[in-house]
Amino acid sequence: MTKKVGMVSVGLTQFQRRAKETGKELAYYSAKMALDEAGITRKDVDGVIIGSAPDAFDGVHQKHEYLTDGSGGFNLPTMRGYVGGGTGVFSPIQGWYSIASGVNDVVLVTTEEKMSSVQPSSQAAFLTIFDNMIERPLGPNLVWIFALEMRRYMEKHGIPKEHIASVSVKNKGNAIDHPSAMLGKKWTLDEVLNSELLADPVRLLDISPVADGAVSFVMMSEEKIKEFGISKDDVAWVDGVGWNVDTTMWTNRDLYYPKYVEKAAKQAYNMAGMKDHSPEALRKWLTFAEPYDPFNYKELHHLEGLQLFGKGKAPKAAFEGVTARDGDFPVTPSGGLLGVGNPIAAAAGMKSAELYLQLTGKAGKRQIDGRDMERGVAQAWGDLMQVGTVLVMKGGRIE
Amino acid sequence: MILNKRNQHKLPTTSVKGDFPVTYHYTAGIAGEKFFLALKDKKLLANTCDSCKFSYLPPKMFCEDCFDELDDGTYKEVDGTAELFSYSEVFYDHRGDKLEKPLLLGLFKLNGSSTIFMHNLLVSEPKIGMKVKVVWSEHRVGSIFDLKGFE
Ligand SMILES: [Zn+2]
Question: What single string gives the DSSP state of each residue in A31-46?
């Protein structure tokens, strides 16, 4: 029998192009904010989780060791998890299992990335995630390979670019209301469609910006939440978790559909007791979703992997406003990576944080209104495009 | 035991040269920038946590134990005197090349700080516990080599 686990606070730094702070100082800001929000101190913490993507970004090897002090891990059981871009959703999953297993009761989780250090660009570091002799000599970067995936997705379902571009308009617009955002702005569809072509069909405004930033959470067992006298209104319970890795040969998948996200999502839904995986049932069961959106088409791709829309059905729904913050099924009310920014591990950390903030009614101007905030799902994607991580949380008063 | 039956083949090896094609622009950070800029003026800065009285040199933006933020008022200059905590004479560099001249490396406990600091040791007969003092470089730019070492 696993213990019931709740998230009781979050902390976020500003996301920015180049932070004056070191990575550990960024981690400290978000970790300290999460502790202060929870009304506890580091002395109350009995376990620390650090999530950060490639060491090559910060330019510090064994980054978890470097980040330990800022993440509050000094003299505590501390562990780093790392699944590339999937890390920011995986870290609260690690927080969950370290408590659910009974090993810890109060866990401080921090996700961090300082991408401004790496020169000439983060893509130079990404080059080394490909096979050294087969793919790397061709010089692929993530924009190139996502262009291949995006085209495959568009071709398979006959998706017009307008439908995909509408996700950039929505998310960058939603980010205007996020206090950590770097790129909140109301763009027009035409501006997105006519932005600079980078790797056909990918254009500049289809992509999220690299950033520096950190996001932290405090997670506790139900007994500790009672012991600290924390109100259920300030809690979001972990309802289901899932993660899955597809084949290492990223080219050996039909890129139009993320099977690994489907597997991770079904694992999480089943754990939460939700056996009906039809889009209609899931969209009723969940109030909103925060799928990973480093590129606009990825949000749609992931919504289909999460079973929230049928294959090829998400783009039209997004274009028609179904996924707007005030739509039938709000998606990425935070503003996402496209609008808030993409400090890899912290970016998906921000998505996990949005679940907490929306479910506890603390999302300020971003708050989804006009409905009961029962349940949300956050999802991230990473490694060499083959890992899916999924977190379902529910409101503090939902049994 | 399987280990004894399935021996690993030792095959002739061919390798291909590669590299990690990145460089870095590091930021010294909130506390680091104060420390390095002060070095230009021959000042060694430490800062002290009000709660636990632990002094950091180089200074930190936060106390890793109490988790208090250490603000501007916590910084003060130390006098550069120190005690030798440990040392070694080193002969090879990180590439595996023999150094032209062996190097003396020391760990120093600076008076006014609770932490230990690594730098070059500039004495001929080192002894743990000996009193040493910082030696400044003529030309200082705000780097760790604004200190020549300790003698
Ligand atoms: Zn202290």
Answer: HHHHHHHHT--GGG--
Q: Between chains, do B24 and A118 touch, taking CB under 8 Å as contact?
A: yes
Range A205-234 average pLDDT: 97
pLDDT band at A213 (very low <50, low <70, confident <90, very high): very high
The predicted-structure confidence for A142-184, as pLDDT tens digits, reads as follows 999 999 999 999 999 999 999 999 999 999 999 999 999 998 9
A31 neighbourhood in chain B, CB within 8 Å: 67
Q: Where are the domains of chain A?
A: 5-118+210-233
- Residue B49: predicted pLDDT: 98
How open is the CA angle A212-A385-A311, to the nearest 5 degrees?
Answer: 115
Does A369 have pLDDT greater than 80?
Answer: yes
What span, in angstroms and rounded, lies between the C-alpha atoms of A119 and A4? Answer: 44
Report how far residue A356's alpha carbon sits from residue A362's, in angstroms, rounded to the nearest whole number. 8
Region A230-244: mean pLDDT is: 98
> Which residues from A are below 8 Å from B22, CB to CB?
56, 59, 118-120, 124-125
Following DSSP, what letter does each residue of B13-80 receive, concatenated?
----------EE----HHHHHHHHHHHTTT-EEEEE-TTT--EESS--SB-TTT--B--GGGEEEE-S
pLDDT of residue A61: 93
Report the length, in residues, of chain B: 151
Distance from CA of B124 to the nearest CA of A (A): 34
Class assignment of domain A5-118+210-233?
alpha beta
- Residues on chain B bordering chain A, Cβ-to-Cβ distance under 8 angstroms: 16, 18, 20-33, 60-62, 64-67, 69
pLDDT at position A250: 86
Q: What is the CA radius of gyration of chain B?
A: 22
Q: Largest alpha-carbon pair distance within chain B?
A: 68
List the single best residue of A13, A16, A69, A136 to mutate versus B (max B Cβ within 10 A).
A69
The nearest CA of chain A is from the CA of B61 a distance in Å of 7
Q: What residue segments make up the domains of chain B, in order of their start?
A: 27-150
Q: Indicate if the pLDDT at residue A219 is higher than 80.
A: yes
Q: B110 near B55, Cβ under 8 Å? A: no
State ipTM.
0.94
A 104-133 near B (Cβ less than 8 A): 114, 116-120, 124-125, 127-128, 132-133
Any idea what DSSP says for residue A129?
Answer: G
Those residues of chain B that have pLDDT short of 70 are 8
A69/B30 CB distance under 8 A? no
Which residues in chain B have their CB less than 8 angstroms from residue A69's CB? Answer: 60, 62, 64
Using a CB-CB cut-off of 8 Å, the residues of chain B touching A72 are: 67
